[in-house]
Design brief:
Structural class: alpha/beta
Number of strands: 9
Strand content: 15-25%
CATH class of the largest domain: Alpha Beta
Number of domains: 2
CATH architecture of the largest domain: 3-Layer(aba) Sandwich
Radius of gyration: 18 Å
Shape: globular
Length: 259
């Protein structure tokens, strides 16, 4: 199984490339702006994770599977080692990759997520998306109109709408909604049993939004159990979507943390 990816930068540098891993319901498209800025100094890859974007739909959505996908992508791209940036679900996938395959990871930048289980289930959102009869929708506006009651927040709805594509004369989801729904408990969790006894000793930068509730002080000891060489950086004026709320500052922090 090959992940879809986009490549940025023509820089000839001995520095390893950067791989950016998106969040749940996201895709590589969300990170093109950050990737282009980082690519001024080094090569950058953005990937679509399984069951997202243009990558294949598969029946499993575990973090171990996602970590294996990333390593296989690196092998296929001829990348021995990379700095990995992961946001939310992508941050957990990046952390599991570092724990299970540390030789492939030079450093980590984890954005607004911790290696813990969350209460966010996204059940209402998934139910709302699944309830849309795409066979009778012939435009994006028709899909959005059906989503509006269940997803009233405009920014959230527009983010979800990035996953709507045209197939012939009707609309379709890029996302594999049934599998994401089936694996939601694992996605909001962390595979503690599978990574038990593992730790990653190279540099890890935990960047979190000051206005977000995803990373709390209580997560510090858990993070350092897995990642003893970790530091936490709070971004003022940012919530969970740091790349949207503080894009320039985030790029500066990433450039510093990945040097």
């Amino acid at each position: 199984m090959a992940l879809f990816f986009q490549e940025f930068g023509e820089i000839d540098t001995p520095m390893p490339p950067v791989i950016i891993v998106h969040a749940l319901f996201g895709s590589s498209v969300n990170w093109r702006g950050v990737a282009r800025k980082l690519a001024k100094a080094r090569k950058v890859y953005t990937v679509d994770m399984r069951n997202h974007g243009k990558s294949p739909h598969l029946d499993v959505m575990s973090y171990e599977a996602m970590a294996t996908d990333l390593v296989r992508f690196m092998d296929s791209a001829g990348v021995e080692q990379a700095d990995i940036i992961g946001h939310s679900m992508g941050g957990k996938a990046a952390m599991v990759t570092a724990l299970l395959y540390p030789e492939h990871v030079k450093s980590l930048a984890v954005l607004d997520i911790a290696p813990v289980t969350y209460s966010h289930r996204y059940t209402d959102m998934l139910d709302c998306m699944a309830a849309v009869d795409m066979a009778v929708c012939h435009s994006r506006s028709e899909v959005e109109a059906r989503l509006k009651k269940g997803i009233p927040d405009d920014a959230t709805r527009q983010f979800i709408m990035q996953n709507v594509i045209a197939k012939g004369d009707q609309m379709a989801w890029r996302l594999n909604l049934p599998v994401l729904t089936k694996y939601m408990d694992e996605i909001v969790g962390f595979p503690v049993t599978q990574v038990e006894g593992h730790h990653y000793d190279d540099r890890v930068t935990m960047i979190y939004g000051a206005d977000s509730d995803y990373v709390k002080a209580s997560a510090g000891p858990v993070v350092r159990d897995y990642f003893p060489n970790s530091e936490f950086i709070s971004v003022e004026g940012a919530g969970h979507w740091i790349q949207v709320d503080q894009p320039e500052l985030l790029v500066e922090l990433l450039q510093t943390s990945l040097m």
